[in-house]
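Page header: ASSEMBLY MODEL / two components / 316 residues total.
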Amino acid sequence: MTEEKLEQLAKRLGARTAERLNVDAIAQQIAQRLREQPVSRTLWIRQTWVRIAAAVVILIGGAVVASRLTPGRPTHMAHLVADDLNDLSTDQLRSVLTTLDDIVSVDSVVSDSTADLHELDTQQLRTILREG
Amino acid sequence: MTLPKPATAEPLADTELIAGWRGGDEQAATELVTRHARALARFLTGAGAPEADLDDVVQETFIRAFRAVDRFRGQCRFRTWLLTIGSNVLKDFGRRSARRQVMPLDEGVRDLAGDPHELAEAREAEALLAAGLKRLPRLQREVFLLRAQQGLEYDEIAAALATTPGAARVHYHHAVRRLKEIVE
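Prediction written out in full:
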């Protein structure tokens, strides 16, 4: 069987059945159905907009959930540090202050951005930290 | 809206009839059915549509096509687009009536023309081809029918089936190779 013969066979396939088809009757039935159930183009447009709206809601919802689940936001950090300090005893807080004293004494250079602190000497900074 | 009467006897192009239907002209839809129903029926038969369901599948295909006509952008010919819709409709029908025969047994009784022996041989070959087509993957079957039965070019087939002409060519050759094995 050659490809050509196969193609000839394919061309004949269904030819007799198609000839028996009552095309006029089918056309009438289709026209009748189209009349009874008219095409609703607005329905398709409405469905499309509903799908778009659903996608937007899912995206926004997902973004909100993701942002809540992601740690490391600055406000949360400050809150956590404050919580930690509340848990410390007086002795532990003194120890922290002593550590800060050591840091200040080692890094005597203060950043330019903290203009007020820049004007203080080491002793004044120690006093502020103890009082604070 | 009614179709404009052409000055000559030239038949309206499919695109004009589609535009007519979009404008609400029922006659344009009827003309499209008359023009393409038999080709669709041949394609569907090749794709495995039972004769008992053929009228229904053809009807449903046209209904779906007319309802979705706004999505037809002229990426291929209307007939090609219609055949791909027919393939989807047939798939849905197949789920409902999977056990029906592809070729009716009384086919020969109705066709009285020609030498009975030759007719019997031809019918046997067609039945083998139909059975072989059923065993092919859907894409191979569709490409084969669009090419061999409907005579379409690979570019047209590729546009209709959302693939590339090269891929369509490969599917066709795979289909031919397998069908040769089955029919022989």
